[in-house]
Amino acid sequence: MLLIDCPHCGPRAQSEFAYDRTLDAVVALAMPSAEAMTTLYARANPRGWSDELWHHRFGCRAWLVVRRHTATHAIESVTGYAP
Amino acid sequence: MSRYSALALLRGALTGQKHWDRAWRDPEPKKSYDVIVIGGGGHGLSTAYYLAKVHGIRNVAVLEKGWIGGGNTGRNTTIVRSNYRQPALHNFFDFALGLWEGMSDELNFNVMFSPRGAMFLGHSDSDMTSLAQRGDALRCSGIDAELLTRAQVEKLVPLLDMSPAARFPIHGGMIQRRGGTARHDAVAWGYARAADALGIDVIQNCEVTGLAIAGGRVAGVETTRGGIGAGRVGICVAGNSGPVAALAGIKLPIEAQTLQAFVTEPVKPMIDTVIMSQSLHCYISQSDKGGIVLGGDPDQFPSYAQRGLPNRLEKAAAEAIALVPALSRLRMVRCWSGTTDMSFDGSPIISALPVDGLYLNGGWCYGGFKATPGSGFAYAQLLATGAPHPLAAPFGLDRFAQGATVDEAGVGPMPQLR
User: Fewer CB under 10 Å: which end of chain A, C or N?
Assistant: First the structure.
């Protein structure tokens, strides 16, 4: 299990959080449709460090950026997300 | 290759069984091949087998970074069925099921395919409605599906908790009697042996580290055992499609996630069908060795760890015990995890890629094992002719841009919600 250090609530069990998508896959409302398609569907899917958008769904409900290693599950940083 | 038969076994009894050859050679990579298949799992090996068998292309290498049977082929719950609701899916998987039925004979290798029936449980009126809809869709395509009443389910699996206080009430079910299980690593071994006998080089401990691309066309691969030239290259590494496609600078609508399964100590026969609940995501079957094989949800975030979360195991175990209370006394002896290629509509991708001569077979989500023979058959056709097999045509990479996704669960481009 991951222990995710929410900047608002402190260290909490991963079961309180929900993964949403990688940070490079956030589609801006103003994007042209071709760019939105690429952003949504073309994923780097890295084996290694990845910046991800997580939701503290069963906690403070804040959106967070978690920098995480996809093979070791190490978490380098958790910061608030400001679109 | 010495052929496996009862007669050969009897003859060997007189000579101490010393006449058996190794199941497949251990060749050094050649300078170049007509086709290289990256990935020596069941799908890659069956692709190579059908390239030789159906299309007569025998100058083929299968490159495996580890050993045969060590990847996802040996990390699933071994369930084989074709009862999807979407026609594109059930027609494809039923073609695969047809190949499963003749596989042991065709490969001269006992893959222990056991059509013991694959049954979905319905826990509510709405479950029963959706099972009936699915069954109707299947029967319209000529695929067997039988809606079961609560009494029929109870007769089939008397150990299910049918009491009024059951945590998950059982209203009925739907069974595909041709579905069942198979010995998973035997499938990889059987295809490796049969492909090898047709002249295909199965090369283990050979990881692809780069793709040689010249003028928009693939020319070969770089590996841990040197460069190898190729006319066509087929990626067939579900679980690692992202990193391998990245060698060609291609991004795919796929995310890697962990899916776990676990098995109890072996016991006498107690469950002789496959029990599945898609409302709960709980899968229960008994292996031929006697262990109860259990599977549950994926971890729902990207991971290549091949190591899953304990709360997923706990959920699957809790559901299995609620459904079949007799399981509560059994000890779990092993659990394992595979890395699944979660595609963005839940369906596989068997497609040409934007580099000439480079192809992809991946995105199998958690349903790849049952597709093994069909996947190889269709992919071999794509690699041999450049045109997709008709049953695999709906699974092109361009379907996302065209809005022609094949989304069984109907949840959109959110792989973590499947």
Answer: C
3-state secondary structure (DSSP) of residue B228: strand
- Give the SS3 label for residue A3: strand
Question: Which alpha helices (DSSP H) does B141-265 contain, by range?
Answer: 150-156, 184-197, 241-246
10 Å CB burial of residue B56 (0-12, 13-18, 19+) is exposed
How confident is the model at residue B411, as a pLDDT? 86
Contact residues for B132 (Cβ-Cβ < 8 A; gap 6+): B147, B174
Span B174-183, mean pLDDT?
97
Q: Quick one: which of A31, A30, A26 has its CA closest to A51? A: A26
User: Looking up tokens 């496996």, which residue turns up?
Assistant: B4
Query: Which residues, in sequence order, are bridge partners of residue B254?
Result: B343
Residue B64: its pLDDT value, please? 98
Q: Is the dihedral of CA B281, B285, B287, B292 positive or negative?
A: positive
**Test the B interface: residue of A41, A49, A69 with most B CBs within 10 Å:** A41
- Is B302 in contact with A19 (Cβ distance < 8 A)? yes
Q: B223: part of which helix (H) or strand (E)?
A: strand B217-223
Does the interface ipTM go beyond 0.90? yes
Residue in chain A lying closest to B303 (CA) = A70
Which residue in A has a C-alpha nearest to residue B240's C-alpha? A47
Average pLDDT value for residue range B238-264 = 96
Residue with the two structure tokens 């290289």: B36
- This prediction has a pTM of 0.96
Chain A hits for B243, CB-CB cut-off 8 Å, are: 45-47
pLDDT digits (tens, 9 = 90+) for B327-357: 999 999 999 999 999 999 999 999 999 999 9
Q: Is the dihedral of CA A66, B252, B357, B191 positive or negative?
A: positive
CB B219 within 8 Å of CB B36: no
pLDDT at position A1 over 90: no
Greatest Cα-to-Cα distance within chain A, rounded to the nearest angstrom: 39
